[in-house]
Amino acid sequence: MNTHKRDPRLEIETLSDSLRTYQRAYYVDARPLVSDLEYDRLLDQLQTLEEEYPHLRFPDSPSQRVGSDLNSEFPDFVHTIPVLSLDKAYKSEEVSSWMAKTEAKVAQELSFVVEEKMDGVSIVLYYEKGLLVRAVTRGNGLVGNDVTANLKTIASIPLRIPEQEHVAVRGEVFLPKEEFLTLNKRMETPYANPRNLAAGTIRRIKSSEVAKVPLRIYVYEGFWQGEHTFSDHISILATLASYGFSLNPNIALFSKSREDSQKRLEKASLGGKALCYADLDAYVEEHTARRSALPYEIDGLVMKVNELSVREILGYTEHHPRWALAYKFESPQAQTVVENIEVQVGRTGRITPVARVAPVLVGGSTISNITLHNQDYIDMLELSIGDSVEISKRGDVIPAVERVIEKNEEGNKVWTLPKTCPSCSTALVVRGAHTFCPNPTCPDQVSSRLKFFVGKAQMDIDSFGPETITTLIDLGLLKDVSDIYTLDYERALSDAPGFGEKKISAIKAGVEKSKSQSFRRVLVSLGIGEIGKKAADLLVESGIISMDALLEIADRDDEETLTAIKQIGPKSARLLIDGLKDPSMRVRIERLRKAGLNFEEKKIDAPSLVQSFANQTWCVTGSFEHFNPRSLALEEIGRRGGRTTSSVTGKTTHLLAGSGSGSKLVQANKLGVKVVDEEAFLSLLEGEKPKKKSEDVQGEFSFQ
Known about the structure:
With about 700 residues, the chain is of the alpha+beta class. It is about 35% helix and about 20% strand. The strands form five sheets. Strands 13, 14, 15, 16, 17, 18 and 19 form a seven-stranded antiparallel β-sheet that branches.
């Protein structure tokens, strides 16, 4: 008989210690110690125990990382440390001058720490007796908002530090560029840059929603209460790193000589570049040039006096410390004139205003079209046709109108969206922040829907490009995607210019071949709600393997079945159900079923390929000769048992890098990820090459 008495406290403590170790290894050290499956298994065990013994759920439990569905408030909190702005400089000679003047004020040789100025959200973390008790936004520098529950979901923030200390830690919460681009595709209203999305995320009322966003934090200052003295700033950074905090890896120390800087860094047990004063101009120039290749956004560099005793002598103004200076990059920007504002109608009927501006060079590319998002955005700018405006490339990528410099001389008022659809004259309707054309037979919607359906990432119909679609629409023969499978192409196109016998045969062959596309592809191609490739994979892998099963869920209005699938939220579930209930969608589905498309995922009896990529995680970046679009490469990896991811992390084992590879390649080299070029990849596929397509069709893309 087993008389061993269960000790739930010991079990919880053991599981918690293991999970904390694994969290730090993954999020801070970028060296995972266990698989995702094993980590999730242990976390599930911990949560089960904590539900059974709620009095043993401690404030620093790793289960805090998953957040709560309870609504949060963000009460004010008065900061107990100075949370000030920084004085600014815009030229490297201004920085050199500041450093020299600072030395002269204290009449002694100084060293200076230089850190990247993260373009994120400033946060102060307050620890009492080693336990995180409060996370507060910067606010106005005196009072911020308490966002503790949301910040606890960020895995790189320690919930407990190894010393029984009262410490305030300043840091910057940010969202890496690749994660931002992936998440922003899913947003009803896209964010302009990673900083805005990070700021919006930490103010969500449910911490469980914050936990789904891969926010990170780099810390850069620590303030200890009581007897805990440091001689310099780099010792503070080294101590914070030993506590489990993440530091920006690109730190430099400048002093009279490189040798002196190296000795100081070694004494503090801190990594970083050891440089001398003469290296400053080259260092600033290098960072200005390489900022676009970083995996995160920075908007400058921060220079700080390293010696803490000197900081006390220099003190503060009302607005900034005298011992620090921010060197700011100038954002790529220019001035131009809004020549016109046009309206685009998407495949879902969403109306998007687009500014046509006088072409201007910004950040190395010519800008002539700028999305204006919605009426609220235009009203905020008070924008009119003919206005002179300042434009930028936010994050060096997204063109944006920043402000009106001078109003037009024609007397044009603030531009407003039309009341009716420019394509079909149907009265427009407002849903949330956006405006829609509710007519599913609207010509522009039909055209966009068709282009999306035949696109390479969807049904991939060879030779069925925009020219073919436009011709058939103009002839009145193509009104919906189901018509693609019922048309007599010889009869329809025999007299159309540019459509010879060979071209028509290629179209017919492409249409016929598309009937063999998988159920997942068909589901994405229908353009329902937020169903993109990722969502379709989630549905099928959860056991929903047929259109009939999906239709039954929609008929039951069964959101719970969908939201039970990890990564599918209430909003996506509602959009999917509403889309499947739409009468025109039901007609389309039945016509496509009759045409012979796959509406059930077919089981593969046995893998025809050796699972050579099993236990590997691949990321794909750049452009390729044989894999256009890149999803073809992702499919090849999946067929051989590999996993794919949209960003390079510590879990990534391989990066398939094509021409034009950017920040992902930099990150891969930094993390020691194996980089594979296209030729080597083809060899790994045992010489199999996907068939190149004869016509490049660019469709619209949904939630990926």
